[in-house]
Amino acid sequence: MFRVCVFCDNRLTRKENVTLRMKKVSPTIRDVAVEAGVSVATVSKYMNGTQRFSPAVEARLKEAIERLGYRSNPLARSMITGRTRTIGLAILDISNPHFTNVVKGANRIALQHDYTLLLVDTEENQARERSLIEALAQRVDGLIVSSRMPDEESQWMLDLNKPLVLLRRSPGLPIPSVGIDNRLSTYMLARHLLNLGHRRIAYLGFGQARINDERIRGARECLDEAGLTLDVHDAHAPTAKAGEQACSRVMLGPQRPQAVICYNDLIALGFMKEAASLGFKLPRDVSVTGIDNVPYGEYAAPALTTIDIQSEKMGELAMQKLIDGLAGRSDAEHSMFEPRLIVRESTAACG
Amino acid sequence: MFRVCVFCDNRLTRKENVTLRMKKVSPTIRDVAVEAGVSVATVSKYMNGTQRFSPAVEARLKEAIERLGYRSNPLARSMITGRTRTIGLAILDISNPHFTNVVKGANRIALQHDYTLLLVDTEENQARERSLIEALAQRVDGLIVSSRMPDEESQWMLDLNKPLVLLRRSPGLPIPSVGIDNRLSTYMLARHLLNLGHRRIAYLGFGQARINDERIRGARECLDEAGLTLDVHDAHAPTAKAGEQACSRVMLGPQRPQAVICYNDLIALGFMKEAASLGFKLPRDVSVTGIDNVPYGEYAAPALTTIDIQSEKMGELAMQKLIDGLAGRSDAEHSMFEPRLIVRESTAACG
DNA sequence: CTGAAAGCGCTAACAC
DNA sequence: GTGTTAGCGCTTTCAG
Questions:
Q1: Which of A82, B16, B110, B256 has the smallest count of CB within 10 Å of its CB?
Q2: What is the nearest CA distance from A201 to chain B, expressed in angstroms?
Q3: Which chain B residue's Cα is nearest to A76?
Q4: Do strands A287-289 and B334-337 pair parallel, antiparallel, or not at all (unpaired)?
Q5: Quick check: A78 CB within 7 A of strand D?
Q6: Is there a contact between B134 and A130 (Cβ–Cβ < 8 Å)?
């Protein structure tokens, strides 16, 4: 018993016949081969541009593919080639505009090289992080990972057997990475505030971040040189909400600071909003700075003084490094972007 | 000639031997089968929990898998099952916090159902949109798509042969969708402004968006009832930058509005910043509203009055619909979220 | 230039 | 309970 092929009006084997019962099927390389009267190998070579063809065959192939609407199955292809043309990107929180920009930059470069981005948002959830990334690693050619896990606990990443790029400095791991000079960032901010005449300077950090210590160190170094000490506080999350919540603790305590360096822009934005609610006039009563240069610091009131860490460029470079690695041009170094101070209205001379 | 298996100390066929030359290999189901002294079918069933086993076999499997660090290859699995446990999400611009929230919501539900998210950011690029989405469709079980393409030109989406959910109302397409009541949104905003005593009300839209017309209509309807007309302007992009650029045109023209309804929050934020630069006091000189309720409208000055369109819930529902569809519980309807007015400080009584 | 055939790593009948 | 076997859709030698 024979049936007519839904695609090509040719006869089918029993197995192919089954296909007809499925709701919707895509034509396979065999359908094209039959339709064009060539072998599957020929179709494959044509699809991959591996070879040249006689005009006759080429025309028939072209038409058959067009008529059937054939698109080769990337999964089957990947099984053989071992490559998926997909890159995994694991970030801590897509809600944070810093990471949004990283994604944007990474995505742009990926697209340029015909890679697709597989995104995983670990939602700052340390527990799930590892299993999510391990699952991700199985479906991609390489990964870019942002994680809070200490280097010593990140050895398992090496067992993923996939090219990796980290979004942080990781001296303890033989993995290329990109990041920013955190120490210099806060050093610059502290210097800026000292120049404005501030003496009582506080730092509102986020202790769970691996880079928090570096940021504290930078600010401390700068203040030390001036014989001052840094008043360190902690927000419980790297978010605006957390900045709001921490504000009264910082501003209504015994040692009210003249200026506050925040771990990032989100905390700074929340801090400023709450400070205004508490009746402080900014920047007159307190200068505030962030780090990241997220797009909306510019639209806050007062507009936020911050450090541009070039998030988008960071994503671009991370992706470029990974793709280079995939192409054999390995580069196991750490690349550090230079922080750039953006002075806006949230910092002013101490009065 | 025999060689010893890197994983299991057992003998290898010629083919398996080749494997040794590759840089890094992952063990296959066969390695596990050999190591545990069972058949590949048994390993497969164990991995999928399809069946129960004798304690002896189970123990050996467990140990072999552990020792080899075996993880089953999802690609090979997908080839057979026809499912990838991956959902594609195509959005217009990850930089827009509205979409960020959609991603967040969609991702959360996907994770809950053990799906992974494949993200494509079309970057508002109409030309690449189609090919990007077609490529995406090949690697996923279903897609959520946000696009500016008119329904009439979106027929090709039906040929993707994949379950789909659209992030917009598409009466011309037999595809389930989620969105918001755009007409009601601007109607509510206009009503709010009328209540505050404003009479000269402008709309700063984004003409390329499919929903722009609906938003105009809503505001018009409301003003009509009061015998007023809407002054319509256009921004060239749905971004803060574009809002800034459009501001002087709106505010320094002959018919200066008392209130401006912006297409979205980003345009509104840019507009407010520029208006302040031009010397206007907000909201005294002009009331401004946005739509989307992006997280940072709250931290702008003045804090932005807006419409909450529940972006994150939208992402959640879109994903839930898709997953339901994948599970056979189809639901081809359009779900509309109710707009909710959030009054902050950017709108005030007309003085 | 074109085709035949051997699998990639895994699952799904179907035997035993 | 466990094993055998036939492919999923495609690429890739290797002949002709």
A1: A82
A2: 23
A3: B79
A4: unpaired
A5: no
A6: no
Please, which residues 85-144 of chain B have a Cβ atom closer than 8 Å to chain A?
Answer: 86, 94-95, 97, 100-101, 103-104, 107-108, 111, 116-121, 123, 132, 134-136, 138-139
Residues A172, A319 within the same domain:
yes
Cis peptide before A176, with omega less than 30 degrees from 0?
no
CATH number of B68's domain: 1.10.260.40
Identify whether B347 is part of a domain: no
Please tell me the predicted confidence (pLDDT) of residue A236.
97
Q: What are phi and psi of B342, to 5 degrees?
A: -115, 105
The per-residue DSSP string of A133-159 comes to: HHHHHTTSSEEEE-----GGGGGGGGG
Task: State, as a whole number of angstroms, the distance between the CA of B33 and the C1' of D2.
Answer: 12
CATH number assigned to the domain comprising residue A244? 3.40.50.2300
Listed by range, residues with Cβ under 7 angstroms from strand C are A 37-42, 45, 51-54, 56-58, 76, 79-80; B 15-16, 19, 25, 28-30, 40-41, 44, 47-48, 50, 72-73, 76-77, 79-81
Whether residues B297 and B200 fall in one domain: yes
pLDDT at A196: 98
Give the residue numbers spanning the domain of A135: 81-180+312-337
- Verify that A297 and A192 share a domain, yes or no: yes
The answer to whether position A274 is within a domain reads yes
- Confirm or reject contact between B55 and chain A (CB < 8 A): no
The residues that bridge with B233 in the sheet, in sequence order, are: B204
Domain shared by A196 and A113, yes or no:
no
Asked whether residue B236 falls in the same domain as residue B277, the answer is yes
**Neighbouring-strand partners of residue A86:** A116
Of B69, B123, B139, the CB nearest to A159: B69
Distance B54 CA to D1 C1' (A): 7
DSSP-assigned beta bridge partners for residue B165: B144
**Terminal CA-CA length for chain B:** 94
pTM of the predicted protein model:
0.91
Whether B304 and B190 map to the same domain: the answer is: yes
Cα pseudo-dihedral B337, B343, B346, B351, rounded to 10: 130
**pLDDT truncated to tens, each residue of chain B (351 aa)?**
233 333 433 333 333 333 332 345 789 999 999 999 999 999 999 999 999 999 999 999 999 999 999 999 999 999 999 999 999 999 999 999 999 999 999 999 999 999 999 999 999 888 889 999 999 999 999 999 999 999 999 999 998 999 999 999 888 899 999 999 999 999 999 999 999 999 999 999 999 999 999 999 999 999 999 999 999 999 999 999 999 999 999 999 998 999 999 999 999 999 999 999 999 999 999 999 999 999 999 999 899 999 999 999 999 999 999 999 999 887 778 999 999 999 999 999 987
Task: Choose one of B48, B72, B96: the last residue of a domain.
Answer: B72
Does A324 lie in the same domain as A257? no
Q: pLDDT value at position B255?
A: 87
C-alpha closest to that of B319 among B209, B210, B176: B176
Beta-bridge mates of residue A89: A119, A144
- Last residue of a domain, which of A47, A72, A97? A72
Domain count, chain A: 3
- Say whether residue A296 is in contact with chain B using an 8 A CB cutoff: yes
Considering the domain architecture, whether residues B130 and B37 belong to the same structural domain is answered as no
Dihedral sign, CA of B95, B100, B103, B108?
positive
3-state class percentages of chain A: helix first, strand second, coil last, to nearest 5: 45, 15, 40
Query: Can you give the distance from the CA of residue B137 to the C1' of nucleotide C9 in angstroms?
Result: 23
Residue B45's nearest nucleotide, by CA–C1', is: C11
Cis peptide bond upstream of B150, omega within 30? no
Q: CA of A86 and C1' of C7: distance in angstroms?
A: 24
